[in-house]
Amino acid sequence: MVDKDVMLSKIGSVRKYLKRIKNVSNITLQAFLNDVNTQDIILFNIQLAVQNCIDIAAHIVSEKDMGIPGSANEIFYFLEENKYINNLLTEKMVKAVGFRNLIVHEYGKLDLKRAYDISQNDIKDLDTFLKAVIKKI
């Protein structure tokens, strides 16, 4: 059975990280590219928000005995197969995991223009994921 306390804690964490991103992302691309501190805040909070979404998904997959995923990406496909999220959201979450991996493992090769775009547009996909999960559980 899904532990609601664990879920609420993780959901609260994601929302906290999304709020931190929103609080500093109301800037132009040029300002973002010239401000290392804002870059760090946004990238770190994206990393944490995505990781907590992975943790939420992994908890559901484990507790609902959906299978044993071979990767973080596969967790979201299990959720799709079990009607927790739709195909479009699955693909967005897989991309989020990929970007998180770039932040964690290859920071020097990170496309800061893409990071800016994510902070302005794609970050809302994580909130969509939370809403889908909350609705299902």
pLDDT average, as an integer?
A: 95
The helix-and-strand class reads mainly alpha
What order do the SSEs take from the amino end to the carboxyl end, as H and E? HHHHHHH
- Report the β-strand fraction as a percent range: under 5%
Radius of gyration: 15 Å
Q: What count of helical segments does DSSP give?
A: 7
How many strands in all? 0
Helix share of residues? over 70%
Overall 3D form: elongated
The first-to-last residue Cα distance is 10 Å
Parts with pLDDT < 50 across at least 5 consecutive residues = none
Largest sheet entry: none
Key phrases:
137 residues, mainly alpha, elongated
Architecture blueprint of SSEs:
Elements: H1 4-24, H2 29-33, H3 36-63, H4 72-81, H5 87-105, H6 112-122, H7 124-136
Helix pairs in contact: 1-3, 1-7, 3-4, 3-5, 3-6, 4-5, 5-7
Outline:
The chain has 137 residues and is mostly helical. It is built from 7 helices and no strands.
How would you characterize this protein structure?
The chain has 137 residues and is mainly α. It is 78% helix and 0% strand. It has seven helices and no strands. The chain has helices at residues 4-24, 29-33, 36-63, 72-81, 87-105, 112-122, 124-136. Helix 3 crosses helix 5, helix 3 crosses helix 6 and helix 5 (87-105) packs across helix 7. The longest helix has 28 residues, at 36-63. The protein starts with a helix and ends with a helix.
